[in-house]
Amino acid sequence: MKDLYQSQRAMxxxxxxxxxRGVVAILDVGTSxxxxxxxxxxxxxxxxxxxxxxxxxxxxxxxxxxxxxTRSRGVAFGEVAVMRETERAIRTxxxxxxxxxxxxxxxxxxxxxxxxxRSYGLDAQVDLEGQVVTEQxxxxxxxxxxxxxxxxxxxxxxxxxxxxxxxxxxxxxxxxGQLGQTLAVDMHMLTVDASAIQxxxxxxxxxxxxxxxxxxxxxxxxxSALVEDEQELGAACIDMGGGTTSISIFxxxxxxxxxxxxxxxxxxxxxxxxxxxxPMANAERIKTFCGGVHATGADDREMIDxxxxxxxxxxxxxxxxxxxxxxxxxxxxxxxxxxxxARLDAAGFDHMPSQQIVxxxxxxxxxxxxxxxxxxxxxxxxxxxxxxxxxxxxxATGPGFSGVVGLSLFAAHPQDEWWDFEMPVDRYxxxxxxxxxxxxxxxx
Length: 444
Known about the structure:
The chain has a domain of about 80 residues: Dna Ligase, domain 1 (2-Layer Sandwich), CATH 3.30.1490.110. The C terminus is likely disordered. It contains 14 helices and 18 strands. It has a five-stranded mixed beta sheet with strand order 3-2-1-6-11, with helices on both faces. It is an alpha+beta fold.
């Protein structure tokens, strides 16, 4: 537990150094693309020292001065599969963004999807020693949380207090300074496969960058694609990427659940490639410009030129009706949405007071997807784009950039995690978490 605690604190320290220098790189490592932004902090907005617990990511305080994307290589299901190729792609994106910003950046904050996330709800209660809630009392109640056995080869990625209660008064965001007899906390803990993080950390180290933070794509996409009311009243963010579809549920402005389906837009492209007998690049083009999931009578008559460069004239001038294309795409999209539905049901989403669902991510742009999703997932479905942030180029405002924009907001104003509190050495959480996030000590 001590290792985890200290390594995460070390990253937070590094983040502060980056803020003092005024620039930081933001990196979203996805299956189909790697996106990088360079942020400049002007010191006008709320960073992390305003003393509030779990306040919503503040939008002010930074502007985007560099942006770049490159095709992702060596990444499968959101995880690094071929080290050298991923490293090269990350380096390309970082260099291009720094070139645009015309500045050298040393610190990077990264996010990734996949890695089989698992959510846990922890809670604890302590009697207050002096009747007033202090920073130390909050550290003490967090330390009292009983950590479940989450298995070998897993690491804790996020551990956030999502609710405080003082003498039966629940729903407190920041109980500091208030009077009471007992203090209780609910905490959300997210674990992921250790190897996925270790490989990403290694790739970033090889690019001569210092890692100043790491986050789950599911979490940061929710921060940028859900509007404030949705985060407060309850909503799910479904981020449909190339290799994975990430799910996060927010309530009272905190993520309370995250999961991931190991399917995404690339699986739809593969189906088209196989179904029509065309290369992946052609299939991607056909999907982007002509694809959809809802066929009408007109689609039988609308013919799509498949094209090709095999040299076989007959084969290269084939056409297919749009209805046939939809017939290939729809089953896979339905399968992804059914899997998402199963995850939401397992999380008890249907018991939440508000059941708004927001679809975002590059693969959410398929024509007719919102209609199909509202049939499979429930009535209230909308398509979400990332929040507007200062200096973001027009090319990076689409749904495929929810992750990297959300990560910028997370970097500028992270919510408190339990390692942000000074814990007395003899009071590390009840059950040993020594294994947790050992990778920092190993990779520092």
